[in-house]
Amino acid sequence: MAPKTNSGKTELKAVTKKTVQSKAPVAKKAVAAAPKAKKVVKVSTRKAYTRPQFRRPHTYRKPATVKPSNNTKTIKDPMDAFRVVKYPLTTDMAMKKIEENNTLTFIVDSHANKTQIKKAIRKLYQVKTAKVNTLIRPDGLKKA
Question: Which residue has the higher pLDDT, 23 or 124?
Answer without folding.
Answer: 124
